[in-house]
Amino acid sequence: MIGRIFIQRIVLLVVVFAAGCGGVVVKKSEPIPSSAQAGSRDEVVLYALGLMDTDYRFGGKNPSSGFDCSGMVSYIYKNAVGMNLPHNAYRIAQISKKIEMSQIRPGDLVFFDTQHRPFSHVGIYIGNGKFVHAPGSNGKIRIGTISSGYFAKRLDGAGTLF
User: Fold this and answer.
1) Catalytic annotation on 133?
2) 48 phi and psi, to 5 degrees?
3) Do residues 43 and 119 lie in contact, with contact meaning Cβ atoms separated by under 8 Å?
4) Which residue is catalytic, options 21, 69, 87, 116?
5) Nearest in space to 32 (alpha carbons), one of 112, 69, 70, 86
6) How far is CA 150 from the centre of its chain?
């Protein structure tokens, strides 16, 4: 366990120092919950990396049964920074503060249209154009690339809860 945490922290440092940027926004309609603190970004990223290879399950919201994308994000923010989020990607997008991709930092959120409706998929940005997400049926939590063909065409924007 200690070795895994050490490796995760090293990966985080590499990712943070190599972080890349782009340029899209997310709509905002509600205030951001106030419980997250700026120093907690690392905790969000480390928690996300610690859930790698956890099974996908539609409606899932814990590691033992699996996660869907918003269940994963809600679980991570609750456990890493004590923030309660809705179990719905669109609603999470509404309460996050829209940011330009040039402003995105590890721990922020990226949103995609993967079901022919805006903000239907969410992931946690980890730096260098990469994000952790629960991809879909028969999948596992993994790292995706924002600029990949599939995700680049579906990017709705980014938001922050910090």
Assistant:
1) yes
2) -60, -45
3) no
4) 69
5) 86
6) 17
Fold of 2-160: endopeptidase fold (from Nostoc punctiforme) (3.90.1720)
> Helix (H) and strand (E) counts for the chain?
5, 8
Helices within 31-134 (DSSP H only) = 41-50, 69-81, 89-95
- Return the domain boundaries, the chain: 2-160
Give the angle subtended at the CA of 150 by the CAs of 149 and 155, to the nearest 5°.
Answer: 100
87 classed as catalytic: no
Q: Where does the pLDDT of residue 36 fall: very low under 50, low under 70, confident under 90, or very high at 90 and above?
A: low
pLDDT band at 3 (very low <50, low <70, confident <90, very high): very low
Q: Is 121 a catalytic residue?
A: yes
What is the token pair recorded at 153? 């065409």
pLDDT per residue as tens digits for the range 78-90: 999 999 999 999 9
CA 42 to chain centre: 12
The catalytically annotated residue of 21, 87, 116, 121 is 121
Q: What does DSSP say about strands 130-133 and 142-145: parallel, antiparallel, or unpaired?
A: antiparallel
Q: What is the pLDDT of residue 138?
A: 80
**Chain segment 95-105, per-residue pLDDT in tens:** 999 999 999 99
